[in-house]
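Q: Can someone sanity-check these two? First one:
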Amino acid sequence: MMKVLLVDDEPFIVQGLSVLIDWQKEGYEIAATASNGKEALNYLRGHKVDVIIADIKMPVMTGLELLETIRREHVSEAYFVILSGYNDFVFAQQAIRHKCMEYILKPVEKEELIAVLRKAAKISENSKIDRQNQKVMERAYLARNVLALLFGKYDGLNLEYVRNHMRLSEGVRYIDIEFCDLKEAQEQEDGQLRHLQRRLYQACIDYLKEDEVHCIFDVSQDEKNFDVGFLYCDYMAAKEDCSEREYLQDFRKNLETVLKHPVRMLAGKKVHDISAVAKSYSAACVLNSLEAFRVKKDIYFYEEEVQINQGGIVLCKNSVDALIAAIEQNDKGKIWGSVERLYAEMKQMGVVGDTVNLNINYLLFQLIHLAAQQDDGVNQEEILHYISESSFEEGTVRGSSVHLARFACEYAEYLAQLRKNVSRGVLGDVEKEIRCNYAQNLTLRELSQKYYVNSAYLGQLFRRKYGQSFKDYLNNYRIEQAAARLLRTDDKIYQIAQDVGYKDLDYFINRFIAAKGCTPAKFRKQAGK
């Protein structure tokens, strides 16, 4: 409801205005009345209103004097309407000079007052939209400058803009906020994952309130990572009179309560100033790459996870080579034993973070080389794609050695199938499945289990033959079936969307536009249906 202040020294005028129209129906409420400009001014100093309707001639302070005073002293930005019994252009000029919206002659006509109120409401709504758009643009520009700092590609202008538009303090840390177990939801539509990401972002800014600009949407350059970035500063915990860990834990628990989904935080290395935040961001990325091989936690702090002893970082080459040999032989027993020995060796050295990073990177490099030797039709990009998207059964315990051992066993099976070259016949069976059951919730994992093929390898076969992922192939097939239905039937668009496998109509329309260059309705209309 917009609030109105009525100002007139004649009580019957105020009473008449109060009953002249249905204020509530027009979206207004009369907040207060005053008998002169001075009384109105005192009220405005302590209360906010949207519209002021004032008589031009009053004792103590006139309506024009009230208008001039509130504009000069910036007391109120309310829309001002003058009521006058004088059809004098000089008075009107004075009123307009001080941003008076309307000059109405007495007696006030009902239709004229309603028209003025609706005009004020429309201007107010347009101003609100403009302010919102301006806020969005300013936030987006600030985010661009923050990203420049995070990626280490900034200059003095970027740094100055961030310092001028964001509250900062000593002690800055980049924190990556993401849903736990989101990899298990990768078979969802990308539109659904993006929606989850937007909900996470909204929950973050709702919690941060006046510090909302410290939250950055979609920092990660990885298209498969649906995360939100957060710039933590030490003043945040200080103003809540708690420790950094307590502040972040409360933040995280609030997100989980709102979103009804587990959330984790990856806290990069703390730096002294925003100018060095790229180091913190890089540290958070390291945590992200190592998270799968660690004991599961709600919050990972870089300083706790990455510890380097005085002897420096050590490559456990013999242990890693033994693990690689076990993987190549597809010997599950040897794999588990080799992983345990590798972690025991690293633990004995008293080091964790960067040593784990070095040894895992060495292992993955050797595995890439090994896969390329098994099948020269597989390039390194395909193998990296397999490693990055390799997932495990729901409920798998994500302990450091346990997780690596499960990955190694899965990779051993992958190598075995590369050697067998199981592509013959399998793609034909999968294509038939899509033709017959495209409207169902087909997933690469379920089909790979049905045909006894490693899911990631089956995905590689698809990319190699069709130049696209299984998900894109399935989506494109569904769109083609929808297009045929649009041309051959008069069925409703939402019904066609459901029949070809899309539960979300908006997502279906977006996919259709991407494939056909127009909406389903326009596609049908162009065909003369």
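And here is the second, same format, sequence then tokens:
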Amino acid sequence: MTSPLMRKDSRWLSAAAALGISALALSACSGSAEAENGIELDTEDVGTGAMESFGVDDVFEATEPVSFSLLYRNNPDHGLDEDWLFFEHLEEEHNVSLNIINAPLSDFEERRSLMIGAGDMPDFVPITYPGQEVPYIAGGGLLPVSDYLDYLPNFTDKLDQWDLWDEFDRLRQEDGKVYMLPGLLEDPFLQFSIVVRGDIWDELGLEAPATWDELADQLRTVKEAYPEVIPYSDRWELQSTLNIASPNFNTVAGWGYGQGLYYDHDAEEFIYAGASDEYREMVEFFAGLVEEGLMDPESLTQDDQLAEQKFAAGESFVIGGNDESTQIYHRGFDELGTEGAEARLIPIPGGRNGDFLHSGSRFDSGLMISASTAERDDFLALLQFIDWLYYSDNGLEFATWGVEGETFERTEDGEIQLVDHIDINEINPEADEHLLRDYGFYNQPFMHANGSLTEYVHASFRPHVIEWQEAMLHKEELPLQPNVPFTDLELEQVSLWQNALSDTVNQATAQFIIGQRDLDEWDDYVAELEGQGMNQMLEAAEEAHQRNLEMLEEVGEGTGD
């Protein structure tokens, strides 16, 4: 549903797109653009490099050379090469050069914090997940991007087309503004699930389990056939598995635990997830697997390499993973000579009362823009460039696939196809060149969410991964969790509560699952959480929620709706 805050803006932008013009083009004669819900820019002189007419799917080409700086997360798997075709094409065809501030993957987040804290933030910082911008807002270094939505036609068009306004509104802070542009996905794209030994599953006549309970039954079948093996030995300290399992227990857990706040839409109140009956039911499920000898208790403590070694050596038959992980697991089989072994990624199992996933799964890592850019002559060009590269169809195509005729071609059906001598994600495993390492495309700092459009996302994966995704299209999204924007003062106190509570939840969850703590002590555990400020945190969340509802109404009235 289109946000009530933005309906007027969305209709205006859509109409402008239909006429092949933009907000800036409409204002060329008057010298200003009408910003319905933000800051009005003087566009009599559109500024260095900016296009006078820039709308949905217009290709950005700076009217004169411009240079923008960004913090580049350098992944050692592919590194950085300033001679990449990506940079060459940007400069020659779009009049844009990028000033790269190189930050190794290992300390990217620390470098980001130090630069922003010191007032040395580059023009924009990609690979920022929603929520990671919050610590930097009080310092005034971030641009409130929601003030400039009229100058981001592709971004707003995607929110409109893909029905993402409600999710965008969840990013609004206590002042009603949004300080980061999220990566957008046309359709949910899930990456993590459970990996099983496909050959063992075939041998025992097992299909992909429809529910977690069915997975437990299958583990019992495997244990009976291979009594010397503990079937399930997980990685990532079980955090990925708890995350993907939690929607079907109607809670949050693992990597997705966040602040632990969970809104009960039926009761219309916040509950603390780690103290809820639903969380206990999930913990009991995994504790039961350990107690039966179906899950390795070291799943919650072992490092990833040990878990991988157990799986490769046939000491376990089930592990967490994604498509990239299955390739690593197969290499492990090859190294140990485990013939016929198959690492098979199965669809995420459903629950006892349905098959669910958490809403909000169509936002991915995005970017923050420095507040200082608003004072620059090329500010409008920067907004247009970001909007084109990260959110327009043709910009996404370029960032993801490169240059047609050089790195990719289109089939007779119009589908994207890499040229034979270039590979990504083992689409062309025998190719002698790599789309990212040799050309700089399909690089997360320059694209969001694996291409954002479902067509682009699917084109980058092998057929079995697409089949895996499509096997989960029936899942129902749980209701969207409301926004809880705390004030700076509240956030200081809430952070103290949150840290103490999360530490207790994490420790107790592991203890309950591996049997170090009896589940009969659950009430004592909840009392510990109450003593650490759980109820006060829930009260603060409810107050912030009510303030947020009032703020949204006020902003909505301000747009004329």
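A (reply): Looked at the second one. DSSP finds 20 helices and 16 strands in the chain. The CA atoms of residues 170 and 482 lie 7 Å apart.
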